[in-house]
Amino acid sequence: MSTFMKSAGLGALGASVFAALPAWAQTATTETAATTSEAAALVPYVYEKTVNNGDVAWMSISTVLVLLMIIPGLALFYGGLVRTKNMVSVLTQVFAICGVVAMIWVTYGYSLAFSYGGAMDTYVGGLSKMFLSGVDATTLVPTFTNGVWLPEYTFIAFQMTFAMITPALIVGAFAERIKFSALLVFTILWVTFIYFPMAHMVWWWGGPDFLAEQQTLKLIAEAAGDTAAAEAAAANLAANGLLWNWGALDFAGGTVVHINAGIAGLVGALMIGKRVGYGKDNMAPHSMTMTMIGAALLWVGWFGFNAGSNFEANAITSLAIVNTFVAAAAAGLAWMFAEWLLKGRPSLLGLVSGVVTGLVAVTPAAGFAGPMGSLVLGLIGGVACFFFVAYVKNAFKLDDSLDVFGIHGLAGIIGAIGTGILVNPALGGAGVPDYLSVPGTLQVAPYDFAFMLTAQIKAVLFTIVFVGIGSAIIYKLVDLIIGLRVTSDEEREGLDLSTHGESAYHN
Length: 507
Prior knowledge:
Layout: H1 3-8, H2 23-28, H3 30-39, E1 50-51, H4 53-81, H5 87-114, E2 140-142, E3 148-151, H6 152-170, H7 180-203, H8 208-224, H9 227-237, H10 242-245, H11 254-272, H12 288-307, H13 315-343, H14 348-362, H15 371-395, H16 404-422, E4 432-434, E5 443-445, H17 449-481, H18 488-493, H19 495-500
């Protein structure tokens, strides 16, 4: 493993159109690359690191937009959906998670997610950047364009917001009944053992310049008959996260954020149990006004979430912005009209839930799919998630309080699998990125439907199993140590007063 990979190859992180090169491309293009390189009298790849002020400005704005998604966006969206007596508790939980995860991120979380992990590098990073060791105003990380880099602090801040919002999403699954202390302990353990490894497995690679450097060295070594050097370069090319090496595409967090949070929320809802009075008492949202405001802030902030995940201000950023518009609009309308047709009335709750569904569904595809593909993805996601929330959830008597799985989990799965289809250029997609066939330039690899669909399904199944089992263990551990759930009397009184001693509203 080269010094470059250990110190600066934190790249990116499958959150962009250039984030996942299929493993088959590394071998399928070798002969073509060798022919091209030999014709050019093979020489080592040399590059310079250029920082574009426009990219830095865009990424700074995107970081703030993602924070807006969480506080106040997600907090108000969730807060309006619970009963009046639990409004303060939800706001406090989301806000506190932001603070806890931010501290963990700069202490050791960033290192576990985005540094070289030695023997465990396929699964998780190491501790070489603990307390942001070695990071200062001069250190850089690669983007998805050869020679274009970002200040490492910019990258750290942006990825920190992703780490903050993911456990905050889980809160909705067991709202109105969890101990605040248990939630904080669960959050610390969950981000450490679930989120950081997932981020590493999906988004850890060396960056385009590192790939070009190592591919060129590999070709030179092969031409010279130097087997040891060729094998060393090949090992460096393969030193990526597990799902990245599988060829799985995730532009902005379909697996890392939404399926991850959705499955963890589902497991939590099942293990903590139903709310007191579930199915008997009126548990309707106490403020659709607050929920609508929160949903609107989520949609605005999601442009930073999706388009910011390109790490550059270029045409792919523009594509992600358009896709974030159309998928959300299509899903919102699909949910609304499906509810109108089957339930007799178009509700505001259904409309805003559909919009969030579309945002989730397009997240993994935002820079890979074309606008029409994103529109279709939104329509499918909106109808599927409405059906689950309106019928399947009730049939199984599942008390996922605010539909974390029904929206984030299910739409994340639909979006992740759909990405493998919609990336196809024949369907208007951007195509699968290929950095190796012509080292130093981005090419579009031949689209292989069977390979891409298999890679996406494998990634989804792995995420479900890893997160499901891991989260169940953490819930059980927390339950044994301090207990997960408040008492029945505290729950009836409401967590605002019983836990926090405050009321959201005063007459």
